[in-house]
Write a structure and sequence with these properties.
It is found in: Cell membrane. This is MMPL family transporter. Keywords: Cell membrane, Membrane, Transmembrane, Transmembrane helix. The protein folds into 3 domains: about 210 residues, Up-down Bundle (Multidrug efflux transporter AcrB transmembrane fold), CATH 1.20.1640; about 280 residues, no CATH class; about 240 residues, Multidrug efflux transporter AcrB transmembrane domain (Multidrug efflux transporter AcrB transmembrane fold, Up-down Bundle), CATH 1.20.1640. Helix content is about 65%, strand content about 10%. The protein has a 5-stranded antiparallel sheet, with helices on both faces. It has a 4-stranded antiparallel sheet with strand order 8-9-7-10, with helices on both faces. It has a two-stranded parallel sheet with strand order 6-11. The longest helix has about 35 residues. The chain is elongated.
């Protein structure tokens, strides 16, 4: 491997324009594909096989008009005033009318007319009862429902029986009459889809789209928001606040640029040259452009979640900059310490540091691709795109970087740097690294105990970690998502932010959902202690399927809501038995509950896979039994501490003002799996670069703790710089506007901080000093069985030294 990479590096150095031209062509092809196919992404995070998704799929197949997405807008009056004044009523009516004019928003009045016309040909009286448009109680139920899908389902059931429709209407009227809110009345009739709170200060306008929210473009959603906000015109003080569901775009802001600036400064301080510092930035940015661009180019054919390219940018920038830094630093040390030419130093740097880069990148790719075993489509796509970003950056570091070094030539080291390097011999740099390594070796037992105690304490909050999808409840106070959430909670109750959709079907396939059954279900549901409102929305053709809207008393991310969903789904529940039905629960809240549950169940399996991979890969790389075990235990400590601190900050709200958010909430459901995979790969990067230097020192004759100190001196400076760069890049995303990006950025930044500085640069040398030369022990049978990957480039160096010796003897 090292010999092949050495020859590749020299070829790229000698013929830079061939390699530069090839990558420029690749970039041009990616750009052309984007131009042809366009960019397609959505906020949808669907997990096939969950109960909520099965119900959604069933609705889409049997009752497609009930499967569209829902949106809502909250109208609020100034403090102490009401919305039902003549002026404000007129403004709300006009805004509601503007929203219903959009061809992708369902107008319940038009739908009712169509249903009535169809019913004239069958049973006019029965249809009139089913649509509920001429009965005041039915109108009140339609206005008071929490799920607009139910409106369409109720209005569109021309085949429902007269008795079933009448029973549904009567139950809805009873529920609406008992509620502390009701329809917003104007000109003696309810405003379609709008409810008014008891004190008249808040009105909730809910409506349904013709298709899923994730299928709507940003411009379409903005048109809805603009139409609703037209109610604010007139100077009456009325405010229209769109809900979180009307924004399906994830924003990352501009704070990530700060991370790149910090990376540039660190590169300059480490390499001491603007030219040398610019090369890692160049390859990192180009790698992101190609890999993320390629993902966008094929987004027409794959499901690309909005968060996927952002993660690829995070990881691609971090590893792209770091990998190039390792190689450039090795080339400069060979030039300054061994007085090699830039050409020879570039080849050797690619052959030695490049080998470490290859295997470090391979560990990241394997860790990311391990997520495919979990079998969740959107998570698999994230993993593949991120892995592709790492793969591209490895290729750039091994091919484009030496080509650019060929263009730079001897200028990679300035005259000042060469002069400064004269007193330093054999690449040994005395200073803080030597003192730190000596201290960790001297106090190794104290350090081991202290690190385990500190990280073990930091991991305690993991036991209380709750997973979910961040909602308006945890959004910042100045956002419309939070203002909408709070206004709905204040006017109607927190449960209206997370309505549930229930689908009842006969337990006996030959049976039907009758009026009596529907009545039993509604009455039974209303008796549950955590149910605020139940609205029967209609019965499908032949009574094979009934839809019910249910509003919990608790919020969408509360534990009580999760318990309610489980109670409703219980096949052996008294309610299901009494009605002779099977109850399915879906809706945005139920989907998120199922997603979090499945991801939480998959997490231990994934960690097990990571541990096994870690031991196998490090066994191959270091040809040691102790090193892989020590590295894996250290990673487990760092990942538990990372999740513990992330839980304390983002769930409990510790130091929330420091990190730019107002309220804690559940952690992003797929964050633990995603962060574990990424951190594992990056942690092994530092393990490879740091411990390979210790092994190189051991192979070259240093014994005992001397090999630990000497190897630490050789690698610590560049590992330190690489860790600072990664932390800076990831930390730049902590202050992004989106809560999901905040959490991922924080977990990655803090995870690298712990793993690089506490585990790799403190615990690792301490443990290596405890075992001394025994750290490299490998059973003889296993030694013969394992291939020698020559990550340190020993065979290459020996071959080159022999070549140089022959050349010298000839002269």
């Amino acid at each position: 491997m090292s010999t092949f990479l050495y020859n590749l590096g020299k070829k790229a150095f000698n013929k830079p324009w061939y390699f530069l031209g090839a990558w420029i062509i690749v970039l041009a092809v990616v750009g052309a594909l984007i131009g042809v196919n366009g960019i397609h992404s959505s906020s949808e995070m669907k997990i096939e096989g969950t109960e909520a998704q099965k119900v959604l799929d069933q609705l889409a197949e049997e009752l497609p008009q009930a499967a569209g997405g829902q949106g809502s807008v909250v109208f609020t009056a100034p403090k102490g005033e009401r919305l039902d004044t003549p002026e404000r009523l007129k403004q709300i009516q006009q805004a509601v009318g503007e929203v219903y004019k959009l061809n992708y928003v369902i107008n319940p009045a038009e739908l009712a007319k169509q249903a009535a016309a169809a019913a004239d040909q069958t049973d006019a009286a029965g249809q009139q009862a089913a649509t509920g448009q001429t009965d005041a109680a039915g109108q009140q139920a339609a206005a008071g429902q929490a799920d607009a899908a139910g409106q369409q389902a109720a209005a569109g059931q021309a085949d429902a029986s007269r008795q079933d429709a009448a029973a549904a209407q009567q139950s809805a009227a009873q529920g609406a009459a008992a509620a502390p809110y009701g329809p917003l009345m104007a000109d003696g009739a309810p405003v379609p889809g709008v409810m008014l709170s008891a004190d008249g200060s808040v009105a909730l306008f809910q409506f349904q789209f013709t298709e899923a929210l994730t299928a709507l473009s940003e411009s379409q959603l903005n048109a809805v928001i603009d139409a609703a906000e037209s109610a604010e015109q007139g100077g009456s003080g009325l405010q229209a606040i769109p809900s979180e569901s009307l924004s399906n775009q994830i924003a990352i802001g501009s704070t990530e640029a700060v991370g790149i600036v910090v990376a540039a400064v660190v590169l300059f301080l480490t390499l001491g040259s603007v030219v040398a510092a610019g090369l890692p930035l160049l390859t990192g940015i180009l790698g992101v452009a190609i890999s993320v661009g390629a993902a966008f180019a094929v987004s027409k054919f794959i499901h690309l979640n909005d968060i996927t390219p952002i993660l690829a940018v995070m990881i691609g920038l971090a590893v792209g900059i770091d990998y190039a830094l390792f190689i450039v630093n090795r080339q400069r040390r060979l030039i300054l310490d061994q007085k090699l030419t830039a050409r020879e130093a570039a080849g050797r740097a690619i052959g030695t540091a490049g080998s470490a880069v290859f295997f470090a990148g391979l560990t990241v790719i394997i860790a990311l691709c391990g997520m495919l075993i979990i079998g969740i489509e959107f998570l698999s796509t994230m993993a593949l795109v991120a892995a592709a970003s790492v793969f591209v950056n490895v290729l750039l570091a091994l091919t484009l970087l030496p080509a650019v070094l060929g263009l730079v030539g001897e200028r990679i080291c300035s005259a000042k740097a060469r002069e400064k390097a004269k007193p330093v011999g054999h690449g040994v740099r005395r200073g803080f690294a030597q003192r730190w390594a000596s201290g960790t070796v001297k106090y190794r037992w104290v350090i081991v105990v202290a690190v385990i105690a500190v990280l073990g304490t930091a991991a305690i909050p993991v036991a209380k970690m709750e997973l979910g999808i961040p909602s308006g409840a945890s959004a910042n106070l100045d956002t419309t998502a939070r203002q909408s959430y709070d206004a709905i909670s204040r006017g109607f109750g927190e449960g209206f932010n997370g309505p549930l959709v229930l689908v009842a079907e006969p337990a006996d396939p030959s049976g039907a959902v009758t009026a009596e059954t529907l009545g039993i279900l509604v009455q039974g549901l209303q008796k549950h202690e955590n149910v605020a409102m139940v609205t029967p929305m209609g019965v499908g053709a032949g009574g094979k399927l009934a839809i019910i809207s249910l509003i919990p008393k608790t919020g969408p991310t509360d534990t009580e809501t999760k318990d309610l969903v489980q109670d409703l789904r219980a096949a052996d529940s008294d309610l299901a038995k009494a009605g002779g039905v099977k109850i399915g629960v879906t809706g945005f809240t139920a989907v998120n509950i199922d997603m979090s549950s499945k991801l939480a169940d998959a997490f231990p399996l994934y960690v097990g896979i990571i541990v096994i991979l870690s031991v196998i890969i490090l066994l191959l790389v270091f040809r040691s039994v102790i090193v892989p075990i020590k590295a894996t235990v250290g990673f487990i400590l760092s990942i538990l501490a990372t999740f513990g601190i992330t839980t304390a900050v983002y769930q409990w709200g510790w130091l929330h003002s420091l990190f730019g958010f107002d309220t804690g909430g559940p952690l992003l459901s797929f964050m633990p799996i995603l962060v574990t995979g990424i951190l594992y790969g990056l942690a092994m990067d530092y393990q490879v670069f740091l411990v390979s230097s210790m092994r190189e020192s051991y192979v070259h004759g240093h014994r005992g703790t001397e090999s630990v100190i000497h190897g630490y001196e050789l690698a610590s400076r560049v590992v330190l710089a690489a860790a600072v760069i990664m932390v800076s890049v990831f930390a730049g995303f902590i202050f992004a506007p989106d809560a999901m990006i905040k959490q991922i950025g924080f977990a990655l930044a803090f995870g690298i901080l712990i793993d690089a500085f506490v585990i790799r640069m403190t615990l690792v040398p301490a443990v290596m000093a405890i075992f001394k030369d025994k750290a490299w022990w490998l059973p003889k049978g296993l030694d013969r069985l394992l291939p020698n990957l020559d990550v340190e480039g020993d065979k290459l160096i020996a071959k080159l030294n022999a070549r140089d010796g022959e050349a010298h003897s000839k002269h």
